[in-house]
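Running co-folding for zinc ion.
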Amino acid sequence: MGIIRKTQSVALLLDEFNTNSGAISVTTLNKRLNSNLNKSTIYRVLDKLEDDGVLHSFLGDNGIKWYAKCEGCSHDNHKDIHPHFQCVVCGKVDCLNVDIVVPKIPNREINSTEILIKGKCETCLN
Ligand SMILES: [Zn+2]
Ligand SMILES: [Zn+2]
């Protein structure tokens, strides 16, 4: 295996998100890409893509980090305050396109909100 250049590692990672709908955990990304990219490269590229407003991250079960594509975010304007849904049967995680109301808390400034809803996805319900 030759040396993979930076642009190629970005392309490889983005490919995963373009061929899969929904979110992908870091564990899965490492497994799928470890023949081409090492762990530190994967983390570095994910960080960069998140910083650029291409991906956003959140924590799933067991504190595992998940990434999903952003819709219309940029470096200066990350606005992924939507909840995420984790299926307790198949483990699939995706972004929920619903609005949530974050309550105003006196004397506190809110920087981020993370909501993980668990249940059965549309496939496992039937
Ligand atoms: Zn499911
Ligand atoms: Zn999301």
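Result summary
The beta strands are 24-25, 55-59, 65-69, 84-87, 93-95, 116-119.
The chain has a mean pLDDT of 88.
Job closed.
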